[in-house]
Amino acid sequence: MSKVHNWQIGREMNYPYPKAFPRRQFAFVFNINRCIACQSCTMACKSTWTFSKGQEHMWWANVETKPYGGYPQFWDAKILDLMEKANPGNQQWSGKPSDDKQKPYDQFDGKTIFEAQNLLTPDSARVLGYLPTDEEWNLPNIFEDNPVGKRGVRNEIDKEGTTLPEHKTWFFYLARICNHCSYPACLAACPRKAIYKRPEDGIVLIDQKECRGYRKCVEACPYKKTMYRGNTRVSEKCVACYPRVEGKDPESGGQPMETRCMAACIGQIRMQGLVKMNNDGSWAEDRYNPLYYMVHVAKVALPLYPEFGTEPNGYYIPPRWVPRDYLKQMFGPGVDDAIERYSYPDRELLAVLQLFRRSNRIIFRYEIKEGPKIYEATLRGRKITMYNDTVIAYGQNGNEIFRTQVEEPVHVRPNKHANSI
Ligand code: SF4
Ligand code: SF4
Questions:
Q1: Protein residue with its CA nearest to atom 5 in ligand 2
Q2: Could you give the CA distance from residue 155 to residue 257 in angstroms, rounded to a whole number?
Q3: Whose CB among 73, 144, 216, 328 lies 3.0–4.6 Å from 189's, allowing a Cys bridge?
């Protein structure tokens, strides 16, 4: 057991495992506003890592339609329900967003999955969790595109349902992979110590030779991102495409490259990076790292269910049209401010948002060169101004990876290629 500081919940917390922090941390930002559920990410992962016999039900990367969809089914409703049972009526946040860079919003006063001791049984002594049934792992995109309709009814469309700031008929796509958490529940729960977090990049892996298939990790991970394989009798999980992150992919030229699911993203919602860490597990200040900027400076990207307590390293720009109560349960109390900043982006944020998916190399730093004013308008009563700034992305070795502009350039194909691909 160790005492750790979990910055996402703004306080100290008990973690049932010795604390150890990596030098860099694998992290990512998904902009939900742009996901179209094309499932290219899902298939990129499947065709790389889980295409073998015994892995048919495994989707390390998946995209589910909220609020009804889930893989495994009802994973979030089930763990939230257990947490509520452990601490009835008290799963609350106490404060408002703060200006402190390491503290996007105030404290979570409820119990995390590591603190719900009253509900832990001798069988699952370290972490509050549950084992999904075999049926719950079926149908990974069940309820795809099913909206919440009038009075909360599934599939019943409200006629006045599409006006911002909140649609009365709504759904959204939640893309998910393992969060390579700072305090992984899977790792803490493994009686074999078969799970480890790599000191160089914080990627969480299962040692296949050590695992005996007890499935304690499957039970403990609140995001249900470890999965049991029946024919080998061991558990498996997302490996964060570590050979690519290490720069060992033949295409990478020795430079760190983003994972397959990130690189395949058609909607350009995904950006992955390796953020610098302090010795105490907090993110080291790195002002011009795009992930650091979006998470700690602009605070447009928020962790998924921070109240679970694992300090997930996946961050989401929340969807603008979804009722705020639902989003606050999912992303914590920073939601209103994040949506406000995303809806009326300042000059720097607009430039940084252009960095998504222009390359499959990991961006370590960006620089903005100012351009001319190109647009001015009043949007829902607020004035917005756009500048055609150029944003330049640099890799680990400091070399430029690419540069792009806020106003997307138009390329006209020469006639002779008009009908060719
Ligand atoms: S998301 Fe689950 S499987 Fe991944 S590191 Fe966190 S606890 Fe472990
Ligand atoms: S590839 Fe991108 S846009 Fe398509 S489903 Fe995945 S996250 Fe969404």
A1: 37
A2: 41
A3: 216
Q: For residue 135, is pLDDT > 90?
A: yes
Half-sphere exposure of 62 (CA within 13 A, CB side): 25
Whether the Cβ atoms of residue 64 and residue 141 lie closer than 8 Å to each other: yes
**Ligand 2 center to residue 239 CA distance, Å?**
19
Q: pLDDT of 199-256, one tens digit each?
A: 999 999 999 999 999 999 999 999 999 999 999 999 999 999 999 999 999 988 899 9
| CA dist., res. 211 & res. 223, Å (int) | 20
Q: How far does the centroid of ligand 2 lie from the alpha carbon of residue 31, in Å?
A: 10
Closest CA to 194 of 217, 214, 216, 210: 210
pTM above threshold 0.85:
yes
Q: Which residue CA neighbors atom 2 of ligand 2 most closely?
A: 265
- Ligand 1: distance of its center to the CA of 343 in Å? 31
Q: Which residues sit with their C-beta closer than 6 Å to ligand 2?
A: 35-41, 63, 173, 175, 264-267, 269-270
Q: Provide the pLDDT confidence category of residue 123 given band limits of 50, 70 and 90.
A: low
Q: Could you give the CA distance from residue 270 to residue 343 in angstroms, rounded to a whole number?
A: 18
Site of tokens 């998910």: 176
Per DSSP bridges, beta strands 373-379 and 365-369 are unpaired
